């Protein structure tokens, strides 16, 4: 075995400072996650409970197998916007009757579970994950439909929700809708387009138009139950496949539906995996508070892979990028991890070769980000950094094995692309609270704008206002800094969640297990033209 040797000293002042800085960030993260859990707040939670109803996360808990984990996705959606953190929707991956499923649950304590623009993006991301990984999709429905004041941002793209349900079904991925309350207007198509539908007695209301709309459109007098009640749909329309007497019964029936799906993983589960040799608690002190300071990614790898066993590839070449083979919860992975931030030509070529090897062997890839981007300067431009960086991005773009990405520190510029950022469709992408991502660092971006403005003034023969320049730089730095922080990016669904570093191995293990539900095969060619 090639067990990594750790040089980390938990008593070192620098380590302790890094750890304290991370704990502060985690406390801030916990406070934001608590906002998502609170939903609409105490008043609306009490009203919901007063009606004898379970909360969204309580429904999920009863649906899942006892003592199994739930990997919540995009919990900070809508952070920093006018909408409630979490976007009135809970999504994630959990095990139901031994089957890994993608679960979505409307939060009716937030504006009746109405969908806003961020709810839509979150739901569409969940559908992408279900389709890519062949995960049965269970929708726990209680929503008044679209948040009407924001309809201009929802109506047109919102049709993709229904498109996705039909595509999942066509691909043989089961879809189950459990209706606990309102599922009206466009929302009626969620049970209408699901393979299996369960409705709760005297609670579920599924209709295209409620009594007021029917009265306005046709003059017909009607009531909720005859128009779209659970019993009507179970006895008359046939929309309900199963009729539940209460919420607990509905969730029991949903579990039985999943038990009868005969849905099998495409790959056999791996055997038992030996935990890392080093304490995962130590992950808190590895990344410096100042991302300009380098850190050794092997210290992270040693604390997340099985037995801390890592076979490094080309260790003496392109040393700013660490590459190698390991196992994580028994699943083989190829790892690319930035060591000193900057990517040079050697690192780019090394990465391209490594990605090709992973595709030859059908091994998923894990990207651990801490990069300021590709190296600039006359020497490096003449040395071919553009074509070599393009080679790495080409390899990432056309790789067919599943990709996982975790932003540990910096993830700037085209380096974010080369390390499989969001635009390159990683199956899952997470960030640590220490991560930052933008076109470049705040100081560099502000400095570039300052240089351009200074050159423009000189070209026009005008004096340059140094005081205004300092104010502009400070403003730009502050803006870019705030827009590069993980909660800001997670709020826009540029990742699948900001995670506690200590949970990295668990989160990645759950993702790898989900990935192996679907068949995959690496690219045996088809990488396009590599400029040599």
UniProtKB/TrEMBL annotation:
<dbReference type="InterPro" id="IPR011762">
    <property type="entry name" value="COA_CT_N"/>
</dbReference>
<dbReference type="GO" id="GO:0016874">
    <property type="term" value="F:ligase activity"/>
</dbReference>
<keyword id="KW-0808">Transferase</keyword>
<dbReference type="Pfam" id="PF01039">
    <property type="entry name" value="Carboxyl_trans"/>
</dbReference>
<feature type="domain" description="CoA carboxyltransferase N-terminal">
    <location>
        <begin position="22"/>
        <end position="273"/>
    </location>
</feature>
<dbReference type="InterPro" id="IPR029045">
    <property type="entry name" value="ClpP/crotonase-like_dom_sf"/>
</dbReference>
<dbReference type="InterPro" id="IPR011763">
    <property type="entry name" value="COA_CT_C"/>
</dbReference>
<dbReference type="GO" id="GO:0016740">
    <property type="term" value="F:transferase activity"/>
</dbReference>
<dbReference type="InterPro" id="IPR045190">
    <property type="entry name" value="MCCB/AccD1-like"/>
</dbReference>
<feature type="domain" description="CoA carboxyltransferase C-terminal">
    <location>
        <begin position="272"/>
        <end position="514"/>
    </location>
</feature>
<dbReference type="InterPro" id="IPR034733">
    <property type="entry name" value="AcCoA_carboxyl_beta"/>
</dbReference>
<protein>
    <submittedName>
        <fullName>Acetyl-CoA carboxylase carboxyltransferase subunit</fullName>
    </submittedName>
</protein>
């Amino acid at each position: 075995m090639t067990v990594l040797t750790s040089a980390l000293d938990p008593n070192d002042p620098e380590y302790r400072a890094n750890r304290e800085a991370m704990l502060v960030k985690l406390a801030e993260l916990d406070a934001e996650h608590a906002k998502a859990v609170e939903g609409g707040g105490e008043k609306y939670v009490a009203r919901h409970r007063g009606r004898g109803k379970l909360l969204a996360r309580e429904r999920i808990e009863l649906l899942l197998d006892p003592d199994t984990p739930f990997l919540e996705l995009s919990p900070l959606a809508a952070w920093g916007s006018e909408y409630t953190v979490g976007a009135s929707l809970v999504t994630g991956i959990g095990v139901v009757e031994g089957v890994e499923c993608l679960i979505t649950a409307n939060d009716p304590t937030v504006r009746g579970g109405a969908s806003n623009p961020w709810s839509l993006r979150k739901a569409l991301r969940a559908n992408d994950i279900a389709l890519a990984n062949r995960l049965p999709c269970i929708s726990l429905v209680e929503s008044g439909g679209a948040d009407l004041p924001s309809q201009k941002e929802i109506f047109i793209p919102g049709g993709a929700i229904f498109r996705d349900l039909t595509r999942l079904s066509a691909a043989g991925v089961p879809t189950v809708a459990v209706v606990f309350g309102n599922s009206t207007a466009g929302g009626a198509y969620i049970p209408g387009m699901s393979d299996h539908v369960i409705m709760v007695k005297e609670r579920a209301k599924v209709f295209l138009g409620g009594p007021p709309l029917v009265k306005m459109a046709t003059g017909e007098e009607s009531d909720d139950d005859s128009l779209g009640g659970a019993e009507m749909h179970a006895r008359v329309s046939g929309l309900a496949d199963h009729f539940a007497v209460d919420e607990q019964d509905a969730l029991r029936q949903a579990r039985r539906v999943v038990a009868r799906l005969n849905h099998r993983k495409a790959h056999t589960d791996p055997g038992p995996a030996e935990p890392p040799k080093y304490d995962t608690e130590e992950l808190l002190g590895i990344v410096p508070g100042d991302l300009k300071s380098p850190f050794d990614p092997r210290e992270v790898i040693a604390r997340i892979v099985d037995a801390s066993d890592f076979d490094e590839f080309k260790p003496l070449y392109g040393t700013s990028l660490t590459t190698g083979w390991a196992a994580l919860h028994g699943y083989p992975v190829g790892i690319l991890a930035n060591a000193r931030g900057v990517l040079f030509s050697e690192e780019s070529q090394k990465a391209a070769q490594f990605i090709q090897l992973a595709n030859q062997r059908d091994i998923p890839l894990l990207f651990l980000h801490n990069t300021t981007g590709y190296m600039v300067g006359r020497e490096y431009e003449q040395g071919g950094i553009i074509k070599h960086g393009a080679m790495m991005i080409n390899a990432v773009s056309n790789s067919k094995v599943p990709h996982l990405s975790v932003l540990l520190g910096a993830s700037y510029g085209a380096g974010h692309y080369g390390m499989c950022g969001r635009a390159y469709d990683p199956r899952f992408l997470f960030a640590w609270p220490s991560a930052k991502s933008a076109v470049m660092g705040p100081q560099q971006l502000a400095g570039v704008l300052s240089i351009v403005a200074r050159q423009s003034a000189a070209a026009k023969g005008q004096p340059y206002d140094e005081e205004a320049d300092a104010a502009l730089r400070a403003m730009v730095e502050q803006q870019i800094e705030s827009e590069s922080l993980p909660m800001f990016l997670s709020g826009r669904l540029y990742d699948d969640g900001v995670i506690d570093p200590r949970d990295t191995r668990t989160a990645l293990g759950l993702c790898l297990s989900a990935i192996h539900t679907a068949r995959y095969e690496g690219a045996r060619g088809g990488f396009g033209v590599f400029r040599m």
